[in-house]
Structures
1.
Amino acid sequence: MTLKNKKILFIVGGGISAYKSLDLIRLLQKNSVSIKTILTKSGKEFVTPLSIAALTKNKVYEDIFNKNNEAEIDHISLSRWADLIVVLPTTANFMTKLSIGKAEDLATTVLLASNKDILLVPAMNVRMWLHKATQKNVKILQDYGYHFVGPQKGEMACGEYGEGKMSSPRQIFSYLKNYFNRKNIVKNKNFKALVTTGPTREYLDPVRYISNESSGKQGYELALALKKMGIKTTLVVGPSNLNFSKDLKIKKVISANNMLDEVKKLLPVDIAICAAAVADYSPVKKNKNKIKKDATNLSLIKLEKNPDILDFLGKNNKHRPKIVVGFSAETENIIFNSKSKMKNKYCDLMIANDVSKKGTGFNSDYNKVAIIHKNGKIQNIKKNKKSYIANMVAKIILDKLLMNDKNIN
Ligand code: C5P
C-alpha cells in the first residue's frame, strides 16, 4: 500500500477551509498514515486542537515554547520525523512569511528548519490569489522548492467566484498518493543519473586556453532537482566558480576528453543530461612552454574536433541511458536547429534556449527554454529562475522514465 506507514506533518493554518483538514486527516488515517499536527494561532480560530487530536490520536503542537516540557517541542525533530510536510490551508499571509524566511512561531520555524519536501495547499479569495504580491510569492516559493497543489476555480466561502478555492480533501489525497507512489518507485528502482555541466577548457600552452562563458548553473540545478527526487545523481562539471552543495556527488574535469572519460566511468545510468557547453575544438598539440609573444605564425595552432559526449551517449549500444537529454543554445531558428540536433544526436528530449538575448541563458540565474519531445511536442517555459526550470525539466524526465519503465516491464 502506497501510503502505509508514511509520516505526514500537517500545519493547519488560519482560513475557513481549515475544517477540511479534518476530512483529509480521516482519509489518510484510514490508509495507515501517521499524522502529527501543528495548529497555528489563527488556525485555532477555525478548528480545535481536541478534534485534531481525537482523529490523529496524537498530541497537537501549538507553541514553540512549552512551559511543561521544554525538550518536547523540538522544531528540528518534528521536521526530521516527517516524510512530508503539508500546510493546509496556506493563506496569503502565511506565504508572505515563508517567502521572507520568517521564523516567528512553531509552524514557520519548523518550515525554515525543514529538510523535507513541503506541500502548500493555498486557499484564499480570488483577488488575494491573483494579487501581484501573492503571485510574486508563489514564484519565490516555487524557486525555494515548495510544492503546490491548487488552488482550484470555484465558488468561495465569501460568495465570490474564481481561482483561490482550496483543493478538496479527495484531490489532495490523490496528490499525496501519487507523490508517495513516485517516491516508492524511484527508491525501489534505484535510478541513477549523470549530468554534464559548465564549460570545458582546451589548453594551448600551460597558461592559455579556449573556453566559453558557461557558468554551469543550469546543469547544477538539474542535478539538485534529480537528487531531491531520490535519484542517485553525479554532476560532471568543467571549470566553474559555483559553490557546490556537499550533498551532491561531483566529478571535476577540465577538457572535453576528461569529461568524456568521467562520463564513461559513470555508465550505466538511467538518465544522462548533457548541459555542458563543451568546446567543439581543442589544439592538436599542447605546447609544453608558454607560447612566446613573438611567435610569428599563429596558424601553427592546429585544432582538432573534440568528442561529442551527447552523441556518444545517444548512440551508445551497450549502455545507452534510458533517457538522453541534450541542450541546444541557439541564436536563430531555435526550434528548427534544435530539432535537427536532437535527431542527429539521438536524444529523447532537447532543451532549447535562445542565447541571443541578455538576461537569460549563459551566466545568468534565469533561463527561458522550450522542451522538445521526440514526438514533436514542444513545451515552452517562460523566463524563470534556473532552479524552477530545473525542477520542471526533472519532473518531465522522471515522468518519461516511469512511463518507459512501465512499457518495458
Ligand atoms: O551541437 P551543439 O554543440 O550545439 O550541441 C549541444 C549539445 O551537445 C549540448 O547538450 C552539449 O552538452 C552537447 N555536446 C557534447 N559534447 C560536445 C559538444 C556538445 O556533449 N563536444
2.
Amino acid sequence: MQRGQITKYTAFTPIDLPDRQWPAKTITHPPIWASVDLRDGNQALSIPMTIDEKLEMFELLVSIGFKEIEVGFPSASDTEFNFIRRLVAEDRIPKDVTLQVLVQAREHLIRRTFESLQGVSQAIVHLYNSTSPVQRRITFNKSKDEIKAIAVEGTRLIKSLVSSIPETKIRLEYSPESFSDTEVDYALEVCEAVMAEWGPTEEEPIILNLPATVEVATPNVHADQIEWFCRHLKNRDQAIISLHTHNDRGTGIAATELGLLAGADRVEGTLFGNGERTGNLDLMTVALNLYTQGVDPLLDFSHLEHIRAVYERVTRMTVHERHPYAGDLVFTAFSGSHQDAIKKGMDARKLESGEQGRWEVPYLAIDPADIGRDYEAIIRINSQSGKGGVAYILNKDFGLDLPKAMHPEVGTVVNAAADQGSRELSAEEVFAVFQKEYVNLKSPLELFSIEREDFSKRGEVQVEAEVSFAGETMTVAGTGNGPISAFVDALQAKGWKDFNLLDYRQHSIGGGSKTKAAAYIQIQNEAGATFFGCGIDASIEMAGLQALVSAFNRAHSTSS
Ligand code: KIV
Ligand code: ZN
C-alpha cells in the first residue's frame, strides 16, 4: 500500500445536488423485486448450477414471491438457453411470473435471445452496454456517441423482433452498465435515447436499470445519482427506475436503501447477496429490513432455514455465520448482559401481551419465529455468558426455577467451566455442571434414608436418618417443627451444625407420574459466607433434605 499522500486512487467526484430530497424521506412500501440469482448469481459461481439445480432455484424464488426473475443469458450458453426451453416445455412458469433474459447489444445475441423466448407468455428483454469513461476508453475504444448508438441500435432490433413472437408480451429493460461510474448527464442522455427509440407509455413503461456494477463511492453518492437521474429524466412516469447494486465497498444494501429513498421503484439482487466478486445486493436482507420497519415486503422469508439450505446446496456457497437474519449465530447471545436483557424482554413480552404485541426485545431486531427460527437457540453459554443465560437454560430445558439470589453464583460456576474448556457449553453440559456442583451432593455428608414420626398435637416432627459422614455410617436423630428443622437438629446433636438456614424454596418439575420435586436451600456459615444447595427427588420431602445436605457439603468442601 502507498503511505502518506495516496496518488494511486482519487475520491469520486460528488454529484451536484444541493437540494437533495432523499435524506428526509422514509421507505413506506416495498419496491418491485427482481431476482437475478439465476443470471448474475449463477455466472459468479465456480461451478454454475445445472439445469436441475436452476429449476430448483427457480421454484424456490417463485415460492418466496418473486414475480420478475432473470433466468439467464440465453445467448451466452446452451445450458442457459435449454433451461428456458425446459421451463416452457414443462409449463413451469406461473401466470403471474415474468421471465427476464439478459442480452448484450449485439445483433446475433439478440436474435438468439428471442429464439429462447418462443412460447413464453411475458418476458423482459434486458439489454445492456457499458457507458462509463473507463469502459468507453479502455474496453471499447469508442466515443460517447458511438456507445449511445450501440444502445439505440440494440433497442431498435429488439423492437423489430417483438412481432416475431406475437404470443409473448415483451417489455424492455435497459441498463447503462457501470452507471455508478458514468457521468450522470451522459447516462441520462443514453437512457433518453433508448426511451425515444422504444416508445414507452405510462401504461407500458420501460425499465431503466441503473447498476452500481462496481461500487465506487459512499452510498449517499449513489442516492444522489439516483435522485439526480429521476429528477432530470424526461417522461419519468414512462419509466420504472431499477437499482442493481454490487457490494465492492460492502455497502450494497445501504446504497439500495438510500437509492429507494431517492426515488427508485425496483430492485434487482440475489438471495444472500451471491454474485460477482463481493456479490450482488442481498434481497433477503433488504426485504427483512423493510419488514422490521413495519413495511410488508411482499416476499415470504418465513422459512429462511429451508431457503438457505436449498441455496447452499444448489450454489455450493455458504452463508456466513453472522450474515444478517440467516447466519447461524445471529440469534445467539454469548454476552451475559445481553442474555439477561433478552430473557427479560421475552418474559415481559409474554406477560404484557401474550407474545402478540409489538416486538420490543433488546438486542434482537426481529422475532426469530417470524423467519422460522427458534428461541431455543437464542441463549448459548460460553465464558462471557452471565447468570441470566444460565438460569434461562436451566429453566427452559430442565424445568429448574432457581431462586434469583442463586443466579450469580451458578453463573460464575458455569462460566468457569466454559472458560476451562475454552469453548461453548451445550445445554446438557450446563446442566451437568449444575448437577455436579449443587445437586444431591454426597460428601462429606450422605443421606441414605429418613424416617419421620409426626406429633401433630405438639406440632412436632421427629426424624431418624441413616447417614454417613466422612465415610462413617451412622444413625442420627432430631426433633423440629418439620423434617428439615428436625434434620438440622439431628446434625446439631452430632456437633456438625455450624450454619444458619437462610432460605428454602421448592417447586415441581414436569407432570404426571414423572413429576419430581426440586428444592433449593441457602445456608450461612459462622464466617458469614453463604452456600446454596439443590435437591431433586421424586419425594418433595427428600428433595428438601437433599438440598440441605448439598448446601452443607458445599460449605464443607469450600472450607476444607
Ligand atoms: O452489474 C451489472 O452492471 C450487471 C448488468 C448486466 C446489469 O449485471
Ligand atoms: Zn450485476
3.
Amino acid sequence: MAPNLSDVSQISAVTERLAADDHGLARAAQLLRDGACVAFPTETVYGLGADARNGEAVAGIYAAKGRPSFNPLIAHVADAASAQRHVVWSDLAEKLARAFWPGPLTLVLPLAPDHGISSLTTAGLDTLAVRVPAHPAAQALLRAFDGPLAAPSANPSGRISPTTADHVLAGLSGRIAAVLDDGPCSVGVESTIVGLADGVPRLLRPGGLATEPIEAVLGHALAQPASDDITAPGQLSSHYAPAGAVRLNAEASQGDEVFLGFGPGPCDLSLSPDGDLAQAAARLFDCLHRLDATGRPIAVAPIPDSGLGLAINDRLRRAAAPRP
Ligand code: TXA
Ligand code: MG
C-alpha cells in the first residue's frame, strides 16, 4: 500500500538536538530503531536518516521533507563489507570503493538476492545506491545502529541543502525526531554518484568527489548516464532553490541583488576570496542560506567548470532554474 504523505502521525512536535557524544549517539540509534527519522552530519551535507529496511520509517522521510514523489534514496552503510550485504559487488565496485571509501562517492549497483531493503528506498528499482560516509559522527551512528540508513539531504523538498544543524532545524524543526549536531560539513555538496549497474561506470550526479581522480583510478573517462538512468532529482528543474530569484555568471549585482562572489573583487559574500573550489563547495549552501535570508534576489559570479566546480555549477543551475 502506498504510504499517505499527509499522515502526520510520524511528525514529532519537538525535535531533539543531540550532541555527537556517547549519549547522543545512543539516543539517535534508538530513535532510528524505533522507526523515527533522525538528521545526522556527513562530510557532504546533513542527511535525514531512517532505517532503509523499514518502509514506514522511510515514508517518514518523505512526509517530513514534503517530497511530492518517490525518488530512490541512497543507503548509507559503515563500510564496503556492509554494502555487500545489499548489492551485487564487482571488480569495478571494489576498485572505486578501495580508492574512495569512506568518502563523498555513491555507487549504484544491482540489488543482491535477500537484500532486505525496502522498495520505498529503491523506488521499486532493481538497483541500490550505496555510500560509506567518512564523517566520524556518521560512522559512529551507522555502527551504533548497525544497519543501512536511507538518507536524502535533511531539508524541505526543493530547498537549499543543509550544511549545519541550524539549517536542518530551520527547515524541519517539529517534523523530525532529532538532529545529531556535529558542526558544519566539510565538503558541502552532495556525493558524486557513479552508476555501475550495467558494468559501464557512468556519472549520474557530479558531487563532492571531483571526476578527475575517479577517472584516474578507472584509467578512462566516465560515461554519460544511459537513457533510462535515473539522474539526480529535477535534473533540469528547480532544486536547491532559495526563496528569491538567482542569476548566474554575473559580473556584478544589478538593482536590488545581493552578490555572491568567487575570487577577488567586491561582493556581499564570497564563496572563496582566493578562488579555491573546495572552499567554495564547502561554503555554497551556507552562503545561499545567508543571502536568501536578506529577502533579496541573488547574483552569482562565474565558477570554473572543472574539479569541484562541476558540482557547484550543477547545484547553482538548479537553484536558478524556473520554479514549478
Ligand atoms: O551526499 C549525499 O549523497 C547526501 C548525504 C546525506 O549522504 N545524500 C543525498 O541523497 O544526496 P539524495 O536522496 O538527495 O540522493 C538520491 C539520488 C537520487 O535522486 C538519484 O539521483 C540517485 O541518488 N539514486 C538513488 N538510487 C538510485 C538508483 N537505484 N539508481 C540511480 N540513481 C539513484
Ligand atoms: Mg537533496
